[in-house]
Amino acid sequence: MSLSQSTLYRKIKSSTNNTIVGFIRSIRLKKAANLLLSTPYSLKEIIDLVGINDTRYFIKEFKKQYKVEPSEYRVKAVI
């Protein structure tokens, strides 16, 4: 099955109520949250593993999605 780029974008937008960029970002943040809870990796290692290049951007977007910073997310899960 082949789709044009614009058709793919429209299908993702209609099924996720998100842009393709937002959809990919949310997948990366979800993967990072999982790694924070299940590995001893440093934040920098996790950011690299999920394919984000800017630490400040990652922290800002993580906080926007999860309402806490990544370090707090990890600590709260341990308690």
Structure, briefly:
Helices cover 75% and strands 0% of the residues. It is mainly α and 79 residues long.
Architecture overview:
This protein has 79 residues and is mainly alpha-helical. It has helices at 5-16, 20-38, 43-49, 55-66, 70-78. Helix 2 packs across helix 4. It is elongated and about 45 Å long. The model has no long low-confidence stretch (mean pLDDT 94).
Amino-to-carboxy terminus distance: 47 Å
**Helix amount, in percent?**
over 70%
Report the sheet-strand fraction: under 5%
What would CATH call the architecture of the domain at 26-78?
Answer: Orthogonal Bundle
Average the pLDDT over all residues and give the rounded result: 94
CATH topology annotation of the domain at 26-78 = Arc Repressor Mutant, subunit A
Shape: elongated
Oligomer: single chain
Summarize the main sheet: none
Organism: Flammeovirga pectinis
Domain HTH araC/xylS-type: 1-76
Protein name: AraC family transcriptional regulator
Keywords: DNA-binding, Transcription, Transcription regulation
Feature tags:
transcription regulation; DNA-binding; mainly alpha; Arc Repressor Mutant, subunit A; DNA-binding transcription factor activity
Secondary structure elements and pairings:
Layout: H1 5-16, H2 20-38, H3 43-49, H4 55-66, H5 70-78
